[in-house]
């Protein structure tokens, strides 16, 4: 059977070492006392006094060594328990022991400041979570609800004490813990129904995974956007209608007054004919505007089919006869698209480019040209229409419906082109050239 070695504590070791330090002096003193010829009473009295002092000093040394260690242990224990208000006294930097005490005091102050900052940050976070109108839920690894803000409680129509600790299936949130982390939900909750934007993310607490679910009500935002869209539409339609109806009303009133006169001017028929022509012209312009709007509103979904880029561009450039168009070309590529719609986009872009070059030619620049090129990008095809026109003067309104700088323009072409591009999952941009030449470049990017 193995022997068990008894180990002395640090306190006992200090005491024994203090005894050992004074043992020679005590032994010599007792020997001299016993051989010095003193009386027995004096020998016992002095002997007990020497031994008592010896033991007392050893105990004092033990206390002197152990007491600071106990103080440090109490300080560290207070820090471990989260009590950062305890401080060590006589923490002086001029001695090693005081230096240790001062460092512990500094650590305690630092931890106290950090905890205060953490508490303030937590309080701010809780205030923000309670004030925002987005429902926030936190579920642990077992699918139990651990946190729900005020908006989340309203969404479930239950207070926190009735939902915390319950499973996602009980709360009707099980679909939020599966599937795509970001998606649209069409779910009816106890506190409301409509369309909801859901986002799920993963975080860890105590080393264990947790799920953070954020649910935002999209219905009100969509309604606000719809209201703004209707307001913009009404303003545009009202502006265009007033521009056409005001002169029609004015001219119709003038013609009516001519017919009411008993004595008419010799050229009254010419005035009538001219007025009716203006009314017809304005009515035709209003009809074109309404047709353009109806065309934008009734744009069908693309019917996709494989389409080679080179023949598509060749067909479009062959339609433009006002100016020669240079086809720079590119690698042989095939798109999955609605060829008719993409052709319409390129026709509009090419028409705008030729109009810009003709405008520059009117201003004295006769050598302006147009070129079409395409190239392959990562996952995309870019078709560029480049012109040597005057460039883009006001790029902020390019894609605003019914905005146009052309006297006969409808302001619908670029909007229609961009909508077609986006329906194909692509983009359309129009900007001034940055290669040192005047002019603009339209870039149509479509997924391969």
From TrEMBL:
An example Gene Ontology CC term for this record: membrane
Which residue intervals define the domain PAS in the entry?
Answer: 121-166
Where does this one sit in the cell? Membrane
Q: What is its EC number?
A: 2.7.13.3
Residue ranges constituting the Histidine kinase domain according to the UniProt record: 236-448
Among SUPFAM superfamilies, the record links this protein to: ATPase domain of HSP90 chaperone/DNA topoisomerase II/histidine kinase, HAMP domain-like, PYP-like sensor domain (PAS domain)
> Which terms are listed as keywords in the entry?
ATP-binding, Kinase, Membrane, Nucleotide-binding, Phosphoprotein, Transferase, Transmembrane, Transmembrane helix, Two-component regulatory system
Q: Which catalysed reactions does the entry list for this protein?
A: ATP + protein L-histidine = ADP + protein N-phospho-L-histidine
Membrane-spanning intervals of the chain: 12-36, 42-63
The family database entries (CDD domains) matched by this protein are listed as: HAMP
Q: Does the keyword Phosphoprotein apply?
A: yes
Report domain HAMP positions: 63-116
Which Gene Ontology molecular function entries are recorded, alphabetically?
Answer: ATP binding; protein histidine kinase activity
Q: Name one GO biological process term.
A: phosphorelay signal transduction system
Q: What is this protein called?
A: histidine kinase
- UniProt organism field: Opitutus terrae (strain DSM 11246 / JCM 15787 / PB90-1)
Q: Please spell out the taxonomic lineage of the organism that makes this protein.
A: Bacteria, Pseudomonadati, Verrucomicrobiota, Opitutia, Opitutales
């Amino acid at each position: 059977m193995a022997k068990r070695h008894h180990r002395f504590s640090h306190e006992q070791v200090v005491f024994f070492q203090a005894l050992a330090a004074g043992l020679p002096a005590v032994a010599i003193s007792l020997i001299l006392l016993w051989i010095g010829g003193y009386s027995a009473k004096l020998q016992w009295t002095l002997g007990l006094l020497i031994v008592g002092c010896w033991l007392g000093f050893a105990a004092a040394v033990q206390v002197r060594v152990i007491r600071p260690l106990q103080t440090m242990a109490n300080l560290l224990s207070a820090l471990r328990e989260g009590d950062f208000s305890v401080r060590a006294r006589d923490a002086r930097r001029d001695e090693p022991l005081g230096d240790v005490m001062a460092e512990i005091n500094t650590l305690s102050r630092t931890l106290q400041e950090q905890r205060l900052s953490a508490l303030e940050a937590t309080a701010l976070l809780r205030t923000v979570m309670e004030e925002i109108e987005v429902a926030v839920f936190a579920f642990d690894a077992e699918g139990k609800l651990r946190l729900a803000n005020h908006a989340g409680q309203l969404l479930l129509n239950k207070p926190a004490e009735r939902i915390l600790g319950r499973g996602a299936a009980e709360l009707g949130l099980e679909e939020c813990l599966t599937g795509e982390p970001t998606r649209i939900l069409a779910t009816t909750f106890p506190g409301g129904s409509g369309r909801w934007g859901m986002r799920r993310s993963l975080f860890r607490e105590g080393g264990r995974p947790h799920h953070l679910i954020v649910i935002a009500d999209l219905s009100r935002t969509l309604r606000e956007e719809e209201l703004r869209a209707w307001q913009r539409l009404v303003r545009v339609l009202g502006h265009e209608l007033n521009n056409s109806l005001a002169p029609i009303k004015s001219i119709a009133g003038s013609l009516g007054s001519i017919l009411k006169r008993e004595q008419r001017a010799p050229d009254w028929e010419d005035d009538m004919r001219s007025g009716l022509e203006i009314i017809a012209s304005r009515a035709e312009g209003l009809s074109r505007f309404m047709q353009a709007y109806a065309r934008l509103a009734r744009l069908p979904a693309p019917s996709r089919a494989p389409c080679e880029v080179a023949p598509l561009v060749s067909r479009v450039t062959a339609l433009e006869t006002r100016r020669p168009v240079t086809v720079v070309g590119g690698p042989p590529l095939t798109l999955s698209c609605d060829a008719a719609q993409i052709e319409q986009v390129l026709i509009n872009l090419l028409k705008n480019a030729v109009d810009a070059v003709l405008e520059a030619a009117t201003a004295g620049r006769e050598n302006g040209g147009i070129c079409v090129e395409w190239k392959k990008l990562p996952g995309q095809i870019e078709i560029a229409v480049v012109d040597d026109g005057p460039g883009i003067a006001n790029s902020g309104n390019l894609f605003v419906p019914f905005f146009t700088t052309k006297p006969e323009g409808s302001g619908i072409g670029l909007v229609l082109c961009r909508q077609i591009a986006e329906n194909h999952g692509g983009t359309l941009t129009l900007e001034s050239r940055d290669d040192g030449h005047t002019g603009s470049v339209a870039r149509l990017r479509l997924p391969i």
